[in-house]
Structure formats: C-alpha cells, structure tokens
Amino acid sequence: MEEILIIEDDLDLQEGLKYTLEMDGYKVEAAGTEKEGLEAVKMHSFDILILDCNLPDGSGFELCTLIRQFSDVPIIMLTARDTEMDEVNALQLGVDDYMSKPFSIAVLKVRIKKLLARQKEPERIESNGICIDKRICKVYKKGEELDCTKLEYRMLIYFLENKNQVLSKEQILDHIWDQEGKYVDENTVSVNVRRLRTKIEDDPAVPAFIKTVHGIGYIWKEKML
C-alpha cells in the first residue's frame, strides 16, 4: 500500500484530502506545520508528499529545501499564489509537480498516480552493451561514459524501452515533441539518429543496433546472447 504524507495547515482541506485518498486505497498521514512535516519525513519513508506552499511556521519552499538534503521522495506542491516565479522556484528546489488552488481532486489523483508509476520504473536500462542510468541521466557503452545531448539521451531511452519494435518516424517525432515542446520535422529525426549511431555503434556505417526500416522508420535490434 502506497503511503502519502499531506503537509497542509488548512484542516478542512487536509481532512478532505486524507479521506478522499484513503478511499482510493492509500495510507495517509497528515501534518499541519513545517516542523511536524519535517519530523514525519525523517521518521518514516513515504511514497509521495503533498506539500502546501504556506505553512504557519515557515514555507513549503523552505521545507522542500530541507527535505531534498536527505530524500528524493516525490513532492507535489499546492499553492494559493498562482505566479510563474513561484512555480519556477518550486521546480528549481526539487518539487516534482505544482498545483494552484483551487484545484481538481480528480487531476490531483492522476498526478499522484503518474508520480508513483514513475518511481516504479527501472532506474537502469541495458541492451547490447549500452547502459542508461536514469538516476543520473548518464549513458555508458561497455562501462565508458558517452557524451550524449539531451535529445540523443531521450531518443536512446525511447529506443531501448521499445527494443525489437519498429518505430515510425512519426512516432519518434511525436516523442520528441512531447519531450522538447518545440517543432521538429522528419529530417531532424534522421539527423539525430545518425549522430546517435556515431556514439553507440561499433561501425556507424553498418549499424547493428539502430537499424533502418526503409519507408517506415527505425528499430533497436537487441542481440541474442
């Protein structure tokens, strides 16, 4: 059973969230101050924190900074101050998600599920001597670190998570769009595949890992041991 800690000084909201999440099968604890929240996180291992931005003895920003000194537990921050700078500040401090009050309980539940699912993803992906360590965003080939751009890194993860499956250029394009949030075209996909091959293939001119499927796209072929 996943365990959630709510750090919120509004008792009505605190009790409402606690009841709703418990009805969904979560084990929920609550704290109303920065001090209580910090003590709870130090004493127990939670799967996710729901943290209010404004607390009677401090702020969610301060508490997040303290928690990030010893824990990488996912944090969703709630705030009544809907400003861009507050959101930027929260994300820079290590908050995983950010919601402005009033918010939809249904949307909060979806975001909780997404963060919990992300925690269950494997931290390392390996195939054909290539290893991706998601915890530190590093790529290794036979133990040696490769210098990959952010786009190459994300493309490589996409290939390895869908190994032995043909991926169309449109699928790869959509994936890049989702991650980068900017316009790209099919030629960008081809260019970045070529660049990635120069870093991971033993012979980029005759690729063994990322193979072209003519007229469709590419496939990551995993070698059979």
TrEMBL record:
Q: Which GO terms describe its molecular function?
A: phosphorelay response regulator activity; transcription cis-regulatory region binding
Return the InterPro entries for the record.
CheY-like_superfamily (IPR011006), OmpR/PhoB-type_DNA-bd (IPR001867), Sig_transdc_resp-reg_receiver (IPR001789), WalR-like (IPR039420), WH-like_DNA-bd_sf (IPR036388)
**Which part of the chain is the OmpR/PhoB-type domain?**
122-222
Q: Could you list the residue ranges forming a coiled coil in this record? A: none
Q: At which residues is the DNA-binding region annotated?
A: 122-222
* Keywords noted in UniProt: DNA-binding, Phosphoprotein, Transcription, Transcription regulation, Two-component regulatory system
Q: Which SMART domains match?
A: REC (SM00448), Trans_reg_C (SM00862)
**Keyword Transcription: yes or no?**
yes
SUPFAM superfamilies on file: CheY-like
Q: Which GO terms describe its biological process?
A: regulation of DNA-templated transcription
Q: Which PROSITE patterns match?
A: OMPR_PHOB, RESPONSE_REGULATORY
**Response regulatory domain sequence ranges:** 3-116
Q: Which residues carry this modification: 4-aspartylphosphate?
A: 52
Role played: May play the central regulatory role in sporulation. It may be an element of the effector pathway responsible for the activation of sporulation genes in response to nutritional stress. Spo0A may act in concert with spo0H (a sigma factor) to control the expression of some genes that are critical to the sporulation process.
What protein name applies here?
Answer: Stage 0 sporulation protein A homolog
